[in-house]
Every structure is written in C-alpha cells, then in structure tokens.
C-alpha cells in the first residue's frame, strides 16, 4: 500500500473544475468515508433504493444501468477510477437507476450529509462537485445522440473514443493502450445494439486497422480514423474547463 | 420551501425579457454562454446535430423550465436550444446566477437539483432510444410529457397540446417521421389516444403507460415539488 490519501485523486480532478484553495483541498481530504470492495458484477447502488451516501470509485470500473420490464438492459454510462458513480444522489432522494461493478472495484462511500455540509461551507468545492454532475449530464446527452442517430459502426467507435479520452485524462492509458474490462455484451448494452451486431462491428473496426481489442485491453491503432468513424468531438467532455482553474 | 428571504433574492435576480419567434435559437452548440434563459411561456427543445447532419432532440423544455442551467457553470454550450413555439424568455446573467448559488446555499441547492432531474430524464431517454421499440418509445415520451405538464397544471381535457411536428417527435425518439406517423395511428386505432390537430387526448392512460414501460420515478416529482416555486 502507498501512503497517498485515497481522496487525493478526487482533489486533483476537482481542481480542474474550480480554483481550490488549500482550505478547500483539506476539506475534501477531510471528508469521512468507508472503503468498500466489490466483486465483478456486484450492485453498488440499486434502482429504487433510498440514498444516504455517494460512492467514489477508487479502483476498477463501474456502470450505470436500467432494466426494462421485458428484461433487456441499457447501460447509461461507464465510470472509471476517481469518478463518482452516483453524485446526483447527494440531492435526489431515491436512486432512479442501478450502478454495478464491471470488474473488481473499490469505492469510498461518503455520507451525503458530509458532502453537502462541506459544499455549503466551501463554495469552490460546491462548484467543483456540481460541475461533475453537469459533465455527467453532458455525457448522457451525447449518449442519447449516439444510440438515437448514429449507425452501429459509429456508435461503437464513438464509445471507444470516449472511454479512451477519459482514461487518458486520468493517466490510465499509455501509447494508446488502455485497461478495458468491458465485454462485447456490455458494449452492446451501451450502444443499443445486439451482441452479434456488436461483434461484427468490432471485427470490422479491427480488420480496418483502427483498434485491437483483447480480453482486458484496448489499443487504438489509428486515432484519427476512429474519431472520424465515430463522429467524435470531445467538446462534450468539457475538458476545456481545466484551462480556467 | 425556500425561506422568504431566499425567495425574494430569486425574484430580485436581474433579467431581460424578450419574445423570439418559433424556431429561434436560444443558444448554439459551441457558444460561450453569458446568461441562462428561463421559458416564461412557450416550448423549446435541446438538440445536437451529428456529423452526417441528422438531428437528435435531447429534451423538450416546457413553460416554466430553465433551458440551459448547466451553462451557469460550464464554459461552452455542448448543444443547441431552439424554440418550438413563440415564447417569452427571461435571460438571467450567468454571474448573477453564480453569485446567488454561492451566496444562498438553499437557492443553490434548489437550482442544482433542477439540473439533476434533467440529467435523470436524459438517462431515461438513453434507455428509450437504446432499448425500446418504436411503439414503446412514442408511448413513453407521451406519458413523460403528460406527467411533466400535469405537474405544471397544463393538462386539459385529459390531454395536452403537443406543439411538435411528427418530424420533431421522430428526432426525439431516434425514429423516422413515417414510422412516428404509423405508430401514432396504431395507438389511436387501439383506443389509447385520440388526436385533434395537436391535442393529444388519453383514452386509456393506464394501458399507454404499460405499453411505454413508463414509471414516473425518474421524474423525481417529489424532489421537484420543493423547487416548483423557482419556475
């Protein structure tokens, strides 16, 4: 184990959303939390549950999902380390969707009351925290476009571009190689496709020399073309917010 | 309920009124926002265009809704907002909003909660276009409009005025206009809705919800009640 504070990565990420003073940083580091480990495919939050905490992903990947009455599933977003998986539950009383682990993961469970108190006391923390939820919403908008108006090849390429850019931002990729514990079935549930269609699409992206996808890793071989195929413009990730902090 | 003092501060926010025509853009993707707009009357929609020029509608804003609250904190607009009807708009300067959010935590919480409910609706729309068939998608969106309009007292005669063309409904549901037309006809033939021009009347509300796989939880109406007075 290292001696780095588990919330240090959160401080780093939030300092891109707002100019945080030393007091602000210390307030974030002083948030009470309990660490909780989850196995693969475990529920972190269940739809319908009354919410009292927010969960920050320390290690591993997670996804938000909704199940339909006919049993089919739509994945609504993928989350990577240093992200909250349910920050909206800081204010909303009931979880309107579930969050599940994609692989083994560890989260910091932070009481909602502590988050709200800190955010009331420290305006810059408040701003950083809510910018997080606003960027989540921007990503949801882009996903509506993706499943609503792009063809299968563009949808899958777009998803891969998004995840690569986000992973790269938190330093989780190297030379276009990313840890990628997502199955083809899950990619299908992210993009509103069937697993068969997803498999065919991934094959064609591979055959065209755009990507290499292994059991747990993704390599992007031709970034420019993948971006073009996916109609990908990263404006919606609002990484340009960083320039102002 | 917001304390009186907070409520007064909200009412005292500076704003500029204008009445743009249907089809006008309130903000365009890529703009640097200087104000946030509230629909004092009229309807609007959020949209994005794909590289190939097709359009996806992301949300429909109803009378009383703020159309771009996220731009209070985000520096660049990531989508466009266009009016569905002629509308009366109050433009509130971005810095005045930022100030009230920071200076009055209760107001800030109320405003942020509004953006969180918007995000919840977006999640449901991902599900709607991603995993429901065309009949379910249209039924679902009609149910959503009905419940949101009802919360604003805008339901009349067991139905509502829907100021959207079939093309716009298609862009909101990821379908073609021809498909939307066919679905609306079949919902009518099955006795679930009836239509008179743009008025949608619910003849079997329960069955429509069932077809649309609709549950109102994601609208967070209970959370919303507290905030209604901000509208």
- Overall structural domain count of chain A: 2
Distance between the termini of chain B: 13 Å
**Biggest chain-to-chain interface with counts:** A-B, 51 and 51 residues
Q: How many structural units, i.e. domains of chain B?
A: 2
* CATH homologous superfamily grouping of the largest domain in chain A: Jelly Rolls
Protein described:
The complex is a heterodimer of chains A (245) and B (231). Chain A is an alpha+beta fold and 245 residues long. Chain A has 2 domains: 8-132, Sandwich (Jelly Rolls), CATH 2.60.120; 150-244, Winged helix-like DNA-binding domain superfamily/Winged helix DNA-binding domain (Arc Repressor Mutant, subunit A, Orthogonal Bundle). Chain A contains 8 helices and 11 strands. In chain A, the strands form 3 sheets. Chain A has a 4-stranded antiparallel sheet with strand order 2-6-4-5. Chain A is globular. The relative contact order of chain A is 0.15. With 231 residues, chain B is α+β, with helices and mostly antiparallel strands. Chain B has 2 domains: 4-125, Jelly Rolls (Sandwich); 133-212, Arc Repressor Mutant, subunit A. Chain B has 8 helices and 10 strands. In chain B, helix 4 crosses helix 6. The longest helix of chain B has 27 residues, at 105-131. The two termini of chain B are 13 Å apart. The model of chain B is unreliable at 225-231 (pLDDT under 50). Classes of the chains: A alpha+beta (245), B alpha+beta (231). Chains A and B meet through strand 5 and helix 4 of A and strand 5 and helix 3 of B.
Short description:
The complex is a heterodimer of chains A (245) and B (231). Helices cover 40% and strands 21% of the residues of chain A. With 245 residues, chain A is an alpha+beta fold.
């Amino acid at each position: 184990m290292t001696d780095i504070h588990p919330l240090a990565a959160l401080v780093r990420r939030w300092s891109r959303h707002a100019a945080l003073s030393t007091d602000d940083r210390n307030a974030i580091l002083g948030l009470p939390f309990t660490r909780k480990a989850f196995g693969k495919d475990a529920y972190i939050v269940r739809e319908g549950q009354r919410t009292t905490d927010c969960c920050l992903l320390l290690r591993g990947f997670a996804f938000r999902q909704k199940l339909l009455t006919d049993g089919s599933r739509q994945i609504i977003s993928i989350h990577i380390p240093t992200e909250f998986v349910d920050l909206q539950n800081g204010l909303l009383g009931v979880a309107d969707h579930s969050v599940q682990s994609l692989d083994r993961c560890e989260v910091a469970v932070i009481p909602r009351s502590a988050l709200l108190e800190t955010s009331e006391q420290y305006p810059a923390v408040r701003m950083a925290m809510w910018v997080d939820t606003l960027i989540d919403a921007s990503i949801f908008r882009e996903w509506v476009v993706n499943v609503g108006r792009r063809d299968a090849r563009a949808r899958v390429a777009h998803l891969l571009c998004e995840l690569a850019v986000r992973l790269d931002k938190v330093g989780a990729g190297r030379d276009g190689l990313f840890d990628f514990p997502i199955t083809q079935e899950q990619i299908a549930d992210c993009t509103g496709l069937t697993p068969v269609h997803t498999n065919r699409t991934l094959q064609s992206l591979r055959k065209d020399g755009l990507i290499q996808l292994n059991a747990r890793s993704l390599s992007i071989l031709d970034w420019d073309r993948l971006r073009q195929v996916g109609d990908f413009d990263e404006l919606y990730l609002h990484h340009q917010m960083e320039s102002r902090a | 309920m917001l304390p009186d003092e907070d409520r007064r501060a909200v009412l005292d926010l500076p704003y500029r009124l204008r009445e743009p025509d249907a089809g006008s853009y309130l903000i365009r993707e890529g703009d640097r926002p200087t104000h946030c707009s509230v629909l004092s009357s009229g309807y609007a929609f959020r949209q994005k265009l794909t590289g190939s020029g097709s359009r996806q509608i992301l949300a429909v804003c109803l009378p009383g809704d703020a159309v771009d609250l996220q731009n209070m904190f985000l520096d660049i607009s990531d989508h466009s907002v266009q009016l569905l009807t002629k509308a009366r708009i109050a433009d509130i300067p971005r810095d005045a909003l930022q100030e009230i959010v920071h200076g009055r935590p209760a107001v800030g919480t109320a405003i942020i909660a509004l953006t969180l409910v918007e995000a919840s609706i977006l999640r449901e729309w991902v599900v709607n276009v991603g995993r429901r068939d065309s009949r379910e998608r249209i039924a679902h969106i009609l149910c959503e409009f009905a419940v949101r309009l009802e919360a604003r007292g805008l339901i009349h005669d067991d139905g509502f005025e829907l100021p959207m063309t079939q093309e716009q409904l298609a862009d909101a549901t990821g379908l073609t206009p021809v498909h939307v037309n066919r679905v609306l006809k079949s919902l009518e033939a099955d006795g679930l809705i009836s239509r008179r021009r743009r008025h949608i009347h619910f003849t079997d509300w329960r069955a429509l919800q069932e077809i649309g796989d609709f549950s109102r939880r994601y609208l967070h109406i209970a959370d919303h009640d507290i905030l209604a007075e901000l509208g």
